[in-house]
């Protein structure tokens, strides 16, 4: 990292130029627009321009009944659709005071954790591809493919799931799914060695990530960063542990943290988190209780007037749903707190002084989904 | 029937004389070989990449997709060649031509076997280095003329990179030249008849291979066209056959770099049982395979790391290697 003068010290016409990185660029997946002010190849100032995939999900919610908002939730963060889906149902259940059967809660945990592993695999491999290694990307996708196949058998879709329902889940999981999940857990555990050899121990990867894009603890907290990015900066905060929901208190798992706050730390936290997710899946499968998977709820629910906030941990950080109900079948307002938004804008602070190549690495290591920011 | 008995061949032969006739034939063969070779290498690259990445690679056109590159070339020829409005039209047009011509010229002095060499020059090695440096200029022209910031960054990187890596490349070659006492390609090969130079000069060989990888802008030194940073680098704005010419030059340069390594370090055409050309081409393609393998395994270096590697690691080591070689030769 170079120390460079601030933008005011340099004659703008003489040295600096602006570069539009995105909205159509191979590594700003989704459509994100960086407006960079560069000195040679060093970033002096970075502006993130968002809104290219704004679809108005929150506004849509105000015009349809609660049940009709299910599909929208998975389309906000298409990489952790299952988690968003489940989180929405939990918020409404909290608002109505619906008790969810234990089996349904465990099934939600299993599917959410599978979804988290899929998202982390994609996030890590995309990060590695941004650094220039193409092959690990396809290895990761091969593993991710197993999860998608598995979730497809119960939910019918591969990416934008619509599986959770108010009071439970749509269909029960069968023995084939449980066996498949166990097989996947074993398979991925065997693959970690491969990833360590291929990525973590690679000298070029180490050189490209250690000390790059350091987010200090204070900066992370100031910007409201959550998820693996926050834990990579040494803050031990995970909604699953700190404010347990959906029976997460039943399972034994660690919150992996790293003090360094650089790209490598975030990468390692994600890797460790996948192992923890596998532990959770295994425990949930071992202790899966018998019983119904859906509470007795009316076909169309009418929550009482009032409001409710529910927070849960997606693959990218703490998501919050805030629902205001006016006592009708249509929500008055649904507000979503998207972790990617806060995580992305910390780049404003840390980018100056880095190379353009580092920008791609940092962006990949923070693992942002743009549609989630824009909604 | 003997071809030389045909009247037309006889006439041409009589007109040109044996020397010039061999030259013309050789050049024609090169002109045929270069596009076919790069088409083949593109296929090899895609196929190897595919198998490394747990997928079959091209499979549709011909057995195991071997005709895929030819079909792609036909497609590229049919495409419109777009020149951006604000581009420098002439430079934009010249750049792809100047990048491919030097690559072809380099083939003139490469000794595929004791007799298969278009022209034996006293300074064969020098000619190859001289012509392959021109590609840096062409890339700069193309990048500058495109009037695109990504292209410009790519072009500037290319120049800095080729300057930095040409020095250790030449230094490691020098140690071989000191050993064989000649700049003639065939004599360098002939000097390796019992033992390959690789045995005496392993450090120089490794530096040479690293530097040719960097010179031909292959991963992990592919900063010139770093896809995740610069879209396509210097040829972002090029379309159709112009883009294909850049590709052709890249793959030809790759083959020439491997051939050079074979000539300098791996005993050229020497090998048991089979004819010289078989061994030469086999060794060259094996080295190409290694570079392809490296490309699909390693991440990319950052630009400052690339520069540090050249100036702080490769140049001192190759200088030291040259010094040691010179002293040992002198003492013996």
Topology:
The complex is a heterodimer of chains A (375) and B (332).
Chain A: H1 12-15, E1 16-21, E2 33-39, E3 42-49, H2 57-61, H3 70-76, H4 81-96, H5 102-131, H6 135-155, E4 164-165, E5 168-169, H7 175-200, H8 203-209, H9 217-222, H10 228-231, H11 239-242, H12 263-286, E6 306-313, E7 318-325, E8 333-337, H13 339-345, H14 347-350, H15 356-366, H16 370-374
Antiparallel strand pairs in A: 1-2, 2-3, 4-5, 6-7, 7-8
Chain B: H1 7-52, H2 68-78, H3 89-105, H4 124-145, H5 149-180, H6 185-190, H7 197-200, H8 202-215, H9 227-230, H10 240-265, H11 276-295, H12 303-331
Helix pairs in contact in B: 1-2, 1-10, 1-11, 3-4, 3-10, 4-5, 5-8, 5-12, 8-10, 10-11
Task: Please tag this protein with its features.
heterodimer, A: 375 residues, alpha+beta, Cytochrome-c3 Hydrogenase, chain B, three-stranded antiparallel beta sheet, 48% helix, 12% strand, globular, B: mainly alpha, 12 helices
Brief rundown of the structure:
The complex is a heterodimer of chains A (375) and B (332). Chain A is of the alpha+beta class and 375 residues long.
What does this structure look like?
The complex is a heterodimer of chains A (375) and B (332). Chain A is 48% helix and 12% strand. Chain A has 375 residues and is of the alpha+beta class. Chain A has one domain (57-374): Cytochrome-c3 Hydrogenase, chain B. In chain A, the strands form 3 sheets. A 3-stranded antiparallel β-sheet of chain A has the order 1-2-3. A 3-stranded antiparallel β-sheet of chain A has the order 6-7-8. In chain A, a hairpin with a 2-residue loop joins strand 4 (164-165) and strand 5 (168-169). The mean pLDDT of chain B is 84. Helix content of chain B is 70%, strand content 0%. In chain B, helix 1 (7-52) runs parallel beside helix 11 (276-295), helix 4 packs antiparallel against helix 5 (149-180) and helix 5 (149-180) packs antiparallel against helix 8 (202-215). Chain B is built from 12 helices and no strands. Chain B is mainly alpha-helical. Classes of the chains: A alpha+beta (375), B mainly alpha (332). Chains A and B meet through helix 5, helix 6, helix 8 and helix 15 of A and helix 5, helix 9 and helix 12 of B.
